[in-house]
Amino acid sequence: PKTDIVFLKVHKSASSTVMNILFRFGDTHNLTFAFPVRGGNQLSYPRHFLATFVKGFSPRSPQRFNILCHHMRFLQPEVQKVVSSSAIYFSILRNPVQLMESSFVYYKSTSAFSRAHSLEEFLSQPYYYYNPADSDSHYARNLMTFDFGFNPDAEVSAERVQLMLKAIEASFDLLLISEYFDESMVLLKEMLCWDLDSVIAFPLNTRDNSTKSALSDTIMEKIKAWNRLDWEIYTHFNRTFWERIDRDIGRERMQQEVKALRERQAELARTCLQGMGSVAPKDIKDSSLRPLQHGNAKILGYNLNQGLDKETESMCRRLVTPELQYSSTLYKKQFAQKHP
């Protein structure tokens, strides 16, 4: 199994679910994480990543960390200072249309979105609401482009798009697609030589349907035009994703793998979860399993079955612990005082 990993957490793209997979693997295999200097889960995002943002990093004795997965804006030369040269790099993408709909609700309090009553209103005259100079403007335009380290306000020329795609291809071994999450997990499992249980996950940080809105075709086209760089990244890597499946696995075997993954997930849901699924934040009984509520989104969580034996309970709990709580547990574990 590969243990040196860089995951670029692209916002609002099922990336919290992927983080849970990395947290669990690192937790059970006693791997080290590149944590932010002051704890928390942001490596000085939205600034470009620097090695000095990592707790325990020193240029004089460069310690290598196994897993780098907390929020960052990608800058590879700096990333290379904190992980081994053989680390596997991967990230996840999402259709920019759904990504923007999600961002508008989740990041409602940001300067670009706070004054617009709806996404339609924002898109009717985006430059009335959007100012590239605002420190939180990146949430409102080409968020994936921004997270990969590029300028989200750059003009869209064929040449720039090609350079950007080539740079991403040169840096990353795999780009997952959140709309095909199960297929993505199969590819990830193959690439990392992990077993099936290591890539099983329950969706985390997902919104209640009551806060999701259907989008008209006109709005969708406006979103694509406004996030044109993201659209170029997404369509390109969605295509190469399926090319890779055809080349490395084949559609038939992929179907079998996905079936096995879903069956195992359902089995774990029966074992672990009350009602086998997610519940509204107000219905989460154990407050330590309640995810952060943000913006106008209602973020769902889980209740564990009662009466589980200790080992099963601990496995189930790891599967449903929200990102912030899990991160903080791992931080305490990694930096526990060596001397009482």
TrEMBL record:
Single GO molecular function: galactosylceramide sulfotransferase activity
Record-linked InterPro entries: Gal-3-0_sulfotransfrase, P-loop_NTPase
Compartment(s): Golgi apparatus membrane
GO CC field: Golgi membrane
Keyword check for Transmembrane: yes
PANTHER family: GALACTOSE-3-O-SULFOTRANSFERASE, GALACTOSE-3-O-SULFOTRANSFERASE 2
Protein name, per record: Galactose-3-O-sulfotransferase 2
Species whose genome carries this gene: Phalacrocorax carbo
Organism ancestry: Eukaryota, Metazoa, Chordata, Craniata, Vertebrata
